[in-house]
């Protein structure tokens, strides 16, 4: 098909000025899926959006946004922006961060590491309790059933203490109980802390917006508490 014929086919398919043209095959029929131009347009839109977000973070005082901006430029043009520049930006940012900000970021990471298992446990708490009771009842019924073979009955009897314990699992039914459970689970990690510490981290992140909480909000909260600015 000649270039003129292809143009005519696009026109017949409804393409007009300002729109991306349809991708057509040699037979003149449109091919499925977005065109290269549409992919490029979507990629450029994402780049501009993410770059603006990084610049906004930079203006808000987040120095790590510089590395994010460099990484975005590298992803957009790997041949024009050597990855060594991205690595160099990480080193520069690390050197530029004040010790107090490093400590603040470490504390923020710990708060998040405590909040995440708290949320998971609280969201599934009542479900886990119901499931534990149901599993115990099912096991008891199978043990009592004459249809259960001896080998399976022996396995169920062996697991019975475990099932009984699980049937009374109330760890996720209140913030206090969840705090105790998470404190125990995190005792060998950097986020370790007593139950009251875990609870305080959970309440802090929730106050900052829960899943929408950001380091910038956390830092602003600390500024308001101390009345200091960077």
Structure description:
The chain is built from nine helices and no strands. It has 230 residues and is mainly alpha-helical. It folds into two domains: 62 residues, no CATH class; 127 residues, no CATH class. The protein starts with a helix and ends with a helix.
Listing every helix as H and every strand as E from the N terminus to the C terminus, the arrangement reads: HHHHHHHHH
Please tell me what the overall shape is. Answer: elongated
Helix amount: 55-70%
Q: How is the main sheet built?
A: none
Radius of gyration: 29 Å
Oligomer state equals: single chain
Average the pLDDT over all residues and give the rounded result: 79
| Distance between the first and last residues' Cα | 66 Å
Structure classification? mainly alpha
Number of helices: 9
Q: State the low-pLDDT regions, or none.
A: 6-20
For the record, the count of structural domains works out to: 2
Proportion of residues in β-strands: under 5%
Number of strands: 0
């Amino acid at each position: 098909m000649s270039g003129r014929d292809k143009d005519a086919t696009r026109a017949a398919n409804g393409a007009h000025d300002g729109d991306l043209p349809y991708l057509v095959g040699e037979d003149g029929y449109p091919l499925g899926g977005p065109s290269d131009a549409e992919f490029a347009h979507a990629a450029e839109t994402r780049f501009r959006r993410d770059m603006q977000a990084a610049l906004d973070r930079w203006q808000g005082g987040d120095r790590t946004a510089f590395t994010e901006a460099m990484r975005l430029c590298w992803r957009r043009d790997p041949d024009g922006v050597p990855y060594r520049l991205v690595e160099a930006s990480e080193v520069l940012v690390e050197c530029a961060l004040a010790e107090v900000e490093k400590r603040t970021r470490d504390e923020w990471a710990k708060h998040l590491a405590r909040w995440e298992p708290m949320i998971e446990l609280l969201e599934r708490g009542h479900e886990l309790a119901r499931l534990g009771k149901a599993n115990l009842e099912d096991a008891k019924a199978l043990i009592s059933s004459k249809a259960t073979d001896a080998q399976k009955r022996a396995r169920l009897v062996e697991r019975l203490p475990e099932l009984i314990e699980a049937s009374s699992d109330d760890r996720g039914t209140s913030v206090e109980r969840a705090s105790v459970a998470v404190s125990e689970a995190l005792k060998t990690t950097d986020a370790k802390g007593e139950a009251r510490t875990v609870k305080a981290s959970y309440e802090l992140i929730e106050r900052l917006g829960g899943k929408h909480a950001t380091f910038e909000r956390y830092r602003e909260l600390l500024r308001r508490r101390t009345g200091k600015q960077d």
